[in-house]
Amino acid sequence: MLEIKDLCVSSGGKEIVKNTNLKIKGGEIHILMGPNASGKSTLSLALAGHPGYKITSGKILLDKQDITILTPDKRARLGLFLAMQYPVAVSGVPVFNFLRASYQTLRNKKVEPKDFMNSIGKKIETFKFNDSPLERNVNEGFSGGEKKKFEILQLDLLKPKYAILDEPDSGLDIDALKIVAAKIKQVAKEGAGILLITHYQRILKYLTVDRVHILLDGKLVESGGHRLAQEIENKGYKSFSNYGK
């Protein structure tokens, strides 16, 4: 279980996430929705250990182990994964080397380049990139949709215990959306707990979700099933009493 207990997070001296509690079990898919500037990305970055976001109180537990003060690399080694809202380009770092180094570090074993190429090549084919990312540097020259697919490719390759996916559906056409949703569904079926942040319910057409949560002004104000996402789509966030407070 990934457990968030009474978590408060600040950045630049301002409290953004306030007394948040959440439990995600392995194999579950949880959806986090909320208006812009409600604290969704702040929560995701704080969970991953970004140094720009300070946890002022509360705890993060990964399989009962307190990871609140651990560095991002140690959290990753324990099985926590973050797909970023805005993936950055890394000039001079080939995708193949990046993926192989990540895989070897998390698996704590060496994989020969030829063997890794054989296994990763088959995975990449299923994502239907226009041009193979292996021939490029990390996210360099990638379209917005390609960056999102590349994040989910990493998820599929690294098989974390828990994954925070920050708007993995943004910038995707319908074909890419179906591919990304299928991969997320597959990873969850294999046992990973998923926290998926999104603004829209369109990706939910291709996923079976366990819970939907609403974050307003840094607070989790409502949790429910799939119908809650539909209510947001129909009525907006103003229908919730905590909106704007």
Features:
Rossmann fold; 6-stranded mixed β-sheet; 12 strands; 4-stranded antiparallel β-sheet
What does this structure look like?
- By secondary structure, the protein is α/β, with parallel strands linked by helices.
- It has a domain of 167 residues: 3-Layer(aba) Sandwich (Rossmann fold).
- It has 7 helices and 12 strands.
- The strands form 3 sheets. A 6-stranded mixed beta sheet has the order 6-9-10-3-11-12, sandwiched between helices. Strands 2-1-4-5 form a 4-stranded antiparallel beta sheet, covered by helices on one side. Strands 7-8 form a two-stranded antiparallel ribbon.
- β1 and β2 form a beta hairpin.
- α4 packs across α5 and α5 packs parallel to α6.
- The chain is globular and about 55 Å long.
- It starts with a strand and ends in a 10-residue tail after the last helix.
CATH topology of the domain at 2-88 and 160-239: Rossmann fold
Would you identify the CATH architecture of the domain at 2-88 and 160-239?
Answer: 3-Layer(aba) Sandwich
What percentage of residues falls in helices of 4 or more residues?
Answer: 25-40%
What portion of residues belong to β-strands? 25-35%
